[in-house]
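Extended Data, panel c. Modelled sequence:
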Amino acid sequence: MGLEEKPTDLHKKNDKSDQTGTICVHAFSDLTYISPVVFLYLLKECYTHGTLKATTKFRALQHQVFQVLHNDPQPGPSTFVIQCLYVLPIFGIYCEGFSHLIVSALRRYLKLATNQADSLEAKDLAGQLFLDIVGGSLNHDERIVVKILEVFDVKLINIGKVMCHAKETNDSSGDAAKKFVEQYIFGLVESQSYLTAVSLLEQFSIRQSGKSFLFTMLQSKEFKAADKWATFMGNQMLCVLVQEYIDRNLLKHAYDIIKKNNLRQEFPEVYHKCKESSLKKLAEKGCWEVAEAKTNGDRQLLEFLVYLAMEAGYSEKVDELCDRYSLTGFLDVKVPEASLLQNRFLHLNELAVEEIIWVDEVDGLCNATCHIEGCKVLGLDCEWKPNYEKGSKPNKVSIMQIASDKMVFIFDLIKLFEDVPDVLDNCLARILQSPSILKLGYNFQCDVKQLAHSYGDLECFKHFEMLLDVQNVFKEPRGGLSGLAKKILGAGLNKTRRNSNWEQRPLTKNQLEYAALDAVVLIHIFRHVGSHSQPATGTEGHEKIEWKSYIVSQMDNIKKPKKGMKSKRKPKEAQIDEHCQSS
């Protein structure tokens, strides 16, 4: 079998590397007369002359070794790799990486092709290799020791056979081998190499250690090793581990063990408590459809999700879940309104918005454009229906919100694009490409990309003038726009409906208010920062300069501006001063 990917692909384009690549191709094409030393030397040459990143080179070489193992290495692929492992320590810094490389390549090879005689011989040779490494006559990392034992499937009987052949013992029953291995494992435990110790206990089927060993690993926070050990020991030890996690308030670890090992019946309360915690986090992010899917139809979890929707004031989600799953006793319950939510979230009426106008026909589009063109500062935002299928394309942008001081226009992009695409293109171009209107957005780079992807035929989304992405101005945008609103205005935004169905028509009153708030709050953040000096951040004048430095003009390719970069376009600076003063 020849090489499909030539080693020269890794090399620099010079005479020496080309010569090395030619020798490698020739040598690797037939390993019948290639010794392990020569093979490893050529492998090193391929690596050292490579120009790719280390990880990429490693994977490429691993693939090459996998291929050349088909090319008659003598006396067989498995045995040849053992011989290479004996030689590798003389290669110094390359030993550890190349050891993992060739053993991983052999593991892949053995899944597709096996040589019974070669495998049997290699098992005993791997046993001898293990003894030599443990005895100190050969230097290899303990992780490669585990990998060798796993790939060659070395058991205690193989270790005993090698020890008996070397006349280290006359005991052929395997007791001496077991004692030898246990002493080595005890040393690993003493040095706190718990994961390696557990891997060897599992490999050699040694089950003598008990709860004290488990507690020691937990005390050292070696959770991966503890999980592996308990899984090997069986359900009884797994239940002990879960209880320990519960007692230590490590509920996520407990839940993972319960789920992975089907222990839901043994720990029903913990299972539901962790699921509820997961649902709550999803609800807080507005991922209601994902949360609903995570319930798997469990009535108790569905009812909990309804309570979360009620707490968030998401009345339409309450109705939707109750109707879909025939949940009773909720529909007559009053959804909590102002008393609970006003203290936590900003409301539209606090921002003095006089009207939300839905725009889905040509007359409304033209009227909205005329009004917007008379404004100096606008807030922009977009919404689209989320798509939770992996690998699938995102849905089209459904609506675009454009907010002025007192009014918010919500454009039904889907309908307008279908009915009057040319008029839509012209109207939005007049707004988005106007050098006299400052457009505010938050992470608007994402929205712009999505708009261009959804409506590639429109020119209006390919050119932007006077665009300020508020996110770029602040060094700590934790919590998104809601966190920024809380920091600047004293109250955050209720993001419950962020991932709702924005393609449904008509949108609910709550959806309209959510969409409007996301756009108009940008104007209030801009005005507040522009008219108040910020403690510990500088003077009012400094804040104005910061605003100016982030004004960008976007054409075709959307690139995120570098923080602190001053705009070289003086007219823009003069205009932003005017906007700040007027606000």
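The CA atoms of residues 384 and 397 lie 5 Å apart. This feature is highlighted in the accompanying rendering.
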